[in-house]
Amino acid sequence: MHRPEFLVQAGSPGFIDHQYPKAAELLKNWDGTTEMSGPTLIGVPLSKPSISHSGASFTPTVVRKLLHSYSSYALEDELDLRECNVLHDAGDIYMHATKVEESYHRIENSVAQITGKHPDCLPLFIGGDHSITYSTIKGLTASKSGKIGIIQFDAHHDLRNTDDGGPTNGTPFRRLIEGGVIQGQHLVQIGIRNYSNSSYYHQYAKQHGVTVYSMADVRKQGINRILASAVQQLKEKVDHLYVSIDMDVLDQAFAPGCPAIGPGGMTSEQLLEAIFELGKEPLVCGLDIVEIDPTIDIRDMTSRVAVHCLLEFLRGKK
């Protein structure tokens, strides 16, 4: 029996132009058994550990929906991303309803299993708050030989102590350093802002060899120069690169859906330019996009930047 002509599946786009391919066509649902290689979307819907109110657990669903809002065509390159990319969709990691530590465990184990069984898979994680980065990187270290370096786009150091609130979205990089998962010298932070950090945590970063580029550095040196320096610095010390994008690195004008918005941040153009360049880098073994709360966003403005980050990363990999 055939589906009635005008009955479409729930979630389908409201309008179809057969000469306008959607970015959503890049997504190929993974059946859980076939071999996966290349970019792979993995939702990590965890926001309970956020120190401020956050609905970031809804972001993976919103990002997938918004892929229907854009085409797969990169006009500047005259390139249809469908010709050179497949974006596998592995689905979402199922979180425990109440136990945060169990959710961290599930993230770590899922990442280790997926990347262990599919070594050519390049996971692109959609959070969730920034606490997920501790578990995604721990999972990757279980399947990757060698050292992992991190390029973190963020307004905050995220080096808070765990004594005052346990593992939260403000602690992932401190936990990675103090847990011996990474070395401080293998972490580069870009976009750190005034009035979003304390002296104590800034000094902690310095003492542990973390490279910090403030927003003043971004304005004076330019994002391309800083990024080239960061990549070169890390490539001399590590075997893999991981990219962590906290969307509050953006100025509040471009990211009203972040729980910790503030003025003086990056423009979306600066961030997208950086992610495009990182898409070209073969050492990148994973990427995450975190700290978007769709429940407070305005017309999905912040989630739309996240979608463009994904597409620009894929364009860089062409």
Structure description:
The protein has 318 residues and is of the alpha/beta class. The longest helix has 18 residues, at 100-117. It has helices at residues 59-66, 100-117, 132-143, 172-178, 199-207, 215-221, 223-235, 268-279, 301-316; strands at 27-29, 38-44, 73-74, 79-80, 87-92, 121-127, 148-153, 187-192, 211-214, 240-246, 284-290. It has 9 helices and 11 strands. The radius of gyration is 19 Å and the shape is globular. Helix 2 runs parallel beside helix 3 (132-143) and helix 8 packs parallel to helix 9. The protein starts with 26 loop residues before the first strand and ends with a helix. The chain has one domain (23-316): Arginase, Chain A (3-Layer(aba) Sandwich). The model has no long low-confidence stretch (mean pLDDT 96).
* Structural domains: how many: 1
CATH architecture field: 3-Layer(aba) Sandwich
Rounded radius of gyration (Å):
19 Å
Order of helices and strands: EEHEEEHEHEHEHEHHEHEH
Number of helices: 9
Global mean pLDDT: 96
The parts where pLDDT drops under 50 for at least 5 residues are: none
Main sheet attributes: strand count, strand direction, barrel closure: 9 strands, parallel
Query: Structural class, from helix and strand content?
Result: alpha/beta
Shape descriptor reads globular
As for the CATH topology, it is Arginase, Chain A
Distance between the termini: 41 Å
State the CATH class. Answer: Alpha Beta
